[in-house]
Specification:
The protein has 1 helix and 10 strands. It is mainly beta. Strands 5-4-3-10-9-8-7-6 form an 8-stranded antiparallel sheet, with no helix packed on it. It starts with a helix and ends with a strand.
């Protein structure tokens, strides 16, 4: 009986640790590992989508620019929220006035998975270039 209870507790802790609830109440998967904002720093590429560049400014604050692969036009950044498991970004693509919310999770240290909702719904994989 102890083994059953112990196994149940361990299993439940793994399940609860593998999920996160966002503001709307939907369950979203966490990245497979925790990371710091410095792990984002660099240039991220995804063919036929947008490109991302992350850096820290002179005040040591994280900065982000996202721009179109096709036109090179930067997207208007409405908000960005960095935390230990995910990055949430809300942006507006001015060329077609699409507002999207994107959740970025690390697959590994060189791969970001973006789940986009809003005017366009899709999943995009980014690879770190530098």
């Amino acid at each position: 009986m102890r083994k059953l209870i112990f196994t149940s507790i361990i299993l439940l802790s793994f399940i609860s640790d593998a999920q996160i609830h966002n503001v709307s109440g939907n369950i979203k998967a966490k990245s497979s590992f925790e990371f710091t904002n410095d792990d984002y720093i660099g240039y991220w590429y995804s063919k036929d989508s947008t490109h991302l560049v992350f850096w820290k400014d002179c005040n040591n604050e994280m900065q982000l620019v996202e721009f179109s692969d096709n036109s090179g036009t930067p997207l208007e950044l409405i908000s960005a929220n960095f935390n230990k498991t995910n990055l949430y970004v809300k942006s507006n693509f001015r060329e077609n006035n699409w507002v999207t919310e994107s959740e970025y999770t690390f697959v590994d240290s060189y791969t970001l998975k973006c789940t986009m909702t809003g005017a366009g719904n899709s999943t995009i994989i980014y690879k770190r270039v530098k």
